[in-house]
Amino acid sequence: MEDYSKLKAIAGRLRRHIINMVAAANSGHPGGSLSAVEIMTALYFKLMNIDVAQPRWPERDIFVLSKGHATPVYYAALAERGFFSPEELTSFRAVNSRLQGHPDREKTPGVDMTTGSLGQGLSAANGMALGAKLDGQHQRWIYVLLGDGELQEGQVWEAAMTAAHYALDNVIAFVDWNGLQIDGEVSRVMNVACIKDKFAAFNWHVQEINGHDFGEIFAAVERAKEAKGRPSVIIARTIKGKGVSFMENQAGWHGKAPGQEQALQALKELEVE
Amino acid sequence: MATATRDAYGKALAELGAENQDVVVLDADLSGSTKTAAFAKEFPQRFFNVGIAESDLIGTAAGLAASGKIPFASTFAVFAAGRAYDQIRASVAYPNLNVKIAATHAGLTVGEDGATHQMNEDIALMRALPNMTVVVPADGVEAAAATRAVARHRGPVYLRLGRPAVPDIHDESYVFDLLKAPVLREGEDVALFACGYMVHVTLEAADMLAEQGVSAAVINVHTVKPLDTDTVCRYARRCRRVVTAEEHSIIGGLGGAIAEVLAEEVPAPMVRIGVRDTFGESGKPAALLEKYGLTAKAVFAGAMKLMP
Questions:
Q1: Confidence band for B103, pLDDT divided at 50, 70 and 90
Q2: How large is the ipTM?
Q3: Which fold has domain B2-167?
Q4: What pLDDT, in 10s, does the model give residues A96-126?
Q5: Could you tell me where in chain B the CATH 3.40.50.970 domains are found?
Q6: Which CATH class is domain B183-306?
Q7: Domain A5-272 falls in which CATH fold?
Q8: Rounded to an integer, what distance in angstroms lies between the CA atom of residue B303 and that of residue B308?
Q9: Residue B83 carries which DSSP code?
Q10: Contact A124 B48 (CB under 8 A)
């Protein structure tokens, strides 16, 4: 078995950044950030062909955070990767900060697309994938991360049709399937199941994995890259709030900041891990 | 000669496609009506029909702009500015992406399709968005020139086009300047500011006013945002009386924009000609324009009301 200890250490740092930034801002979305840590670590520390010295390098791989509220994990990954200093993370959500509540491609180095209003990221990713194909850049990958609750937005399915219709096999979408949204369980608020069948019916290449397992993430991306003529979706089963005992599987931690005591406890748990 | 602004747009777009490889076009199942079909025929590799999905139309265009293309996204005005407003706001205007939203079938002159398809609020919606430029060509010559100008301009643009043929006002020597509102006729007693379909109607009204001994200036405000406030204020100051005319609601459009500026800079008695806070209905365009008061007679009457 391959040793992912380095990536696991990075994932641990991202989790601690998430707690620190959300606590410092006293605002933000820890739950759906913690669930996406391994996916983001895999993308920014192994998969994506990017250059921190040239954030807009025209041949780079692209990432679109369609579930735009997960900025804590996004900024943590960008900072750890070197797009800006981790010290800047404490300015998250403060006035005059480059780190807006939701991703802003004009303000934050490394952010490829502005998002925040759910449901719009896949369309933008498709546009970038079409652009890459027009430019003959067949080795560029366009990654996008969707939330499972976000799949309730109709535009996602408009874009799912477009990606399949134009055979955008350079699009690789992840669904962060943590099962919870603001008002509770996704299956109770508005059931999106069966996600696999839905994407399959839209003519996508579909895989389901454990979204906290690096080996499964890399194997799935490898297979996604080999699926020619179709866009790929990797439905990643995850735990909302992963790594912090009192946040795990609690919808209440979708968009709430921990208090000082809670933040200390969370950091302690993440230290042990 | 009379040409629909959408026809001139479609022709100019196809020419532009030959000159600039970065120009790409998107449509949502209306390419025959929006006239993007000519581009699609010549450059199928750079044309993307997303089907009846306007949110995705705008979002995909945003992604193409982010990868350096110059996307023109076309559908009817009601579906672009209305249905896809949040996509325009969050995926285009806020990130200041270089998307040209070329919306056809704006206003009452859609005609028989009725109120659901008559977009009389789009100038107001688009004008309120930061970073957005709003252009409303008056005739075919101007629509073609504006198509080229907005392709050169970097940033989001809403290009408002109409369904019916309108008489040519400009000749081929016309030079379009995005930032300057051309004065079509000089006058001293009343300043008539118009855009789009109502420009030729307003010229007619100026003739009627001249017959009554009233000297009316006519200004074609083809770009409602950014507004050429210098010209607007200069003519308000000179003529002391102002009439605006647009195929759009009197709320928030050209009349609203000019009222905002003049209230602060050059307060002047003013009449706004436009759709008076109501929805339209089915009918022949001419019958609708008559019923909703978008005629030369209405512009004439508005100006006369301001005369001592």
A1: very high
A2: 0.96
A3: Rossmann fold (3.40.50)
A4: 999 999 999 999 999 999 999 999 999 999 9
A5: 2-167
A6: alpha beta
A7: Rossmann fold (3.40.50)
A8: 11
A9: I
A10: no
